Design the sequence.
């Protein structure tokens, strides 16, 4: 049985100064780095997810309701989509990009990013490729046949998952609940997450009801 750490969406746009900041996001990035430095030997694999929007349709809005629609954020290849500089990537083995053409909260909707992907932060918003194949050719999107997170974890015999990252009440919760549904044993380390809501009691209760262990 292998054990994996999933670092969810610790990106510039979700931290202070970004397009959709989570209070305490930068501190969480640093805390995750410290945790990984001290505990990476306890994991067989460490992976990260990234919101990676090319044209996510109604997920973006100029008048967002902050429930189903949001201000533009984490646009593929831009600085906002880049992992926060406080997150040490030394031990991250693979990256999974999600939300290219639709809303995607769970890391289990993500596809494996190519190893030779164009570095994030180099592209300016706007004029992104209009199709998956065109985006893949330019390095801003996974290949159409790229492996998903669940298949990747299964191929590496992972059964036990620990989830950390941003935001507790959105992508961390969605990733964790999907992991349980996929048959994994799942733990969320609360101190290595940060949420949008001031009160996360309902979020924690929903995760526990769904079979997630909280630490």
Sequence:
């Amino acid at each position: 049985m292998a054990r994996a750490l999933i670092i969810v969406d610790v990106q510039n746009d979700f931290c202070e100064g970004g397009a959709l900041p989570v209070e305490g996001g930068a501190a969480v990035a640093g805390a995750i780095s410290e945790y990984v430095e001290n505990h990476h030997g306890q994991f067989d694999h460490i992976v990260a997810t990234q919101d990676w929007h090319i044209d996510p349709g109604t997920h973006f809005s100029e008048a967002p309701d902050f429930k189903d629609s949001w201000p533009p954020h984490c646009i593929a290849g831009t600085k906002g989509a880049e992992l926060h500089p406080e997150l040490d990537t030394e031990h991250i083995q693979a990256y999974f990009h999600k939300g290219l053409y639709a809303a995607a909260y769970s890391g289990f909707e993500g596809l494996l990013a190519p190893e030779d992907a164009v570095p994030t932060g180099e592209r300016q918003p706007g004029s992104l490729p209009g199709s998956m194949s065109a985006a893949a050719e330019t390095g801003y999107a996974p290949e159409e046949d790229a492996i998903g997170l669940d298949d990747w974890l299964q191929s590496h015999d992972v059964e036990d998952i620990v989830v950390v990252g941003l935001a507790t009440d959105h992508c961390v919760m969605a990733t964790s609940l999907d992991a349980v549904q996929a048959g994994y044993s799942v733990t969320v380390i609360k101190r290595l997450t940060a949420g949008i809501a001031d009160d996360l009691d309902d979020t924690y209760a929903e995760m526990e009801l769904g079979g997630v262990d909280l630490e």
